[in-house]
Amino acid sequence: MKEPIAVSIAVLKRNGKFLLQLRDNIPNIIYPGYWAFFGGHIEENETPLIAMRRELQEEIGYVPPVLSELGCFESVGVLRHTFYGELTVDIEELVLGEGWDMGLWTVEDIKRGDRYSEKAGQVRPIGPPHQKILLDLISQGF
């Protein structure tokens, strides 16, 4: 059986809302055009934490002062090393370096499973594994 792809993802929270990225809508990536966490592949000789810091710097130009590991979540073919951090700056201070859009999601948005993107000009769904991770965290009082 093939080893799952290892990625690091960030659950970033500010004022009770969760920061998500609207992935580019290109067919050769996983979950194109879906809302998902910031993060990406762990490169050779990188720890999951180092990969997470690198990905956040590349994707939004921001790394939280503290990143805590939440654990690993596996779904078909992907092992997600998941980290938590507080978003200590306003979203307007972030520079989107990868993806179509970004936004702060409420618990209601997460439960509904979709959200409007001004940049896309349409309502787009959240990726199923990302929604599941957030719903699990919310159910634990996160």
Description:
The protein has 142 residues and is of the alpha+beta class. The protein has one domain: Nucleoside Triphosphate Pyrophosphohydrolase (Alpha-Beta Complex), CATH 3.90.79. Helix content is 22%, strand content 37%. It is built from 3 helices and 9 strands; from the N terminus they run ββββαβββαββα. It has helices spanning 48-60, 107-112, 128-139, and strands at residues 5-14, 17-22, 35-36, 38-41, 68-75, 78-86, 101-105, 114-117, 122-125. Strands 1, 2, 3, 4, 5, 6 and 7 form a 7-stranded mixed beta sheet that branches. The N and C termini lie far apart (34 Å).
In short:
The protein is built from three helices and nine strands. It has 142 residues and is α+β, with helices and mostly antiparallel strands.
CATH topology: Nucleoside Triphosphate Pyrophosphohydrolase
| Quaternary | single chain
Indicate the low-confidence ranges by residue numbers: none
Largest sheet: 7 strands, mixed
Helical percent range?
10-25%
Number of strands: 9
The assigned CATH architecture is Alpha-Beta Complex
The assigned structural class equals alpha+beta
The tally of structural domains comes to 1
Q: What is the H/E order?
A: EEEEHEEEHEEH
| Apparent shape | globular
Q: Approximately how much beta-strand content do the residues carry?
A: 35-45%
Instruction: Calculate Rg over CA atoms.
Output: 14 Å
